[in-house]
Amino acid sequence: MNLIQYQALAIRTAKPAENKTFGYIHGALGVGSEVGELCEEFIRAMGAEHIDLLYVAKELGDHMWYLAYEAHENDIQLWSLVSDDAVQEAGASAPVFQDKETYGWDPKSVVYVLGLVAAQGEMLTQVKKHYIYGKPLDQLAMISSITMQINCIMKICNSLHISFTGLLQTNIDKLRLRFPDAYSDAAALARADESATA
């Protein structure tokens, strides 16, 4: 799966934004939530000296969904930010995990997580300035933030031997179960994908 395909399929499952500002906030808060969950797993892993790869791949996939959404709200195409060669190279790094797996992780991956935190912080700052202060959203800053976040996610995948394109596909497969037709509040609450895998 490439980023053109991923963004189109991801947006199919998005709740329509009431206005652009709502969309900016939804995307930025979603990214912040996902990176927080990812950090919790890395904190746990630092003590346990192994990391739950399935959980990390899931959280990174959810993070990518919010990046696709935020980019869409800003009229940004993900494929224009990262070369397809880089995406495919990251995708070839490992298989998609079918069972719960742990990995004796490379501490260098923490550096990429910190980069992810910094980049999503910049996104939140730009959205805050727009919403609170009424400033026009800085498109160049948003492009920079989204690009850095994608690059950090690919580096995390490489360091932990997770397939980047595999996690994109797994994220879409999950959302197809949750929203077989299109987004609805009822389907979002029901989370059919979770009952199907329980």
Q: What CATH architecture do you see?
A: Orthogonal Bundle
Distance from N terminus to C terminus (CA atoms, Å) equals: 26 Å
Q: Beta fraction of the residues?
A: under 5%
Q: H/E order of the elements? A: HHEHHEHHHHH
Instruction: Please give the largest β-sheet.
Output: 2 strands, antiparallel
Provide the spatial order of strands within the biggest beta sheet.
Answer: 1-2
Tell me the overall shape.
globular
**Class derived from helix and strand content:** mainly alpha
What is the subunit organization of this protein?
Answer: single chain
Question: Which value, in Å, is the CA radius of gyration?
Answer: 16 Å
- CATH topology heading: all-alpha NTP pyrophosphatase fold
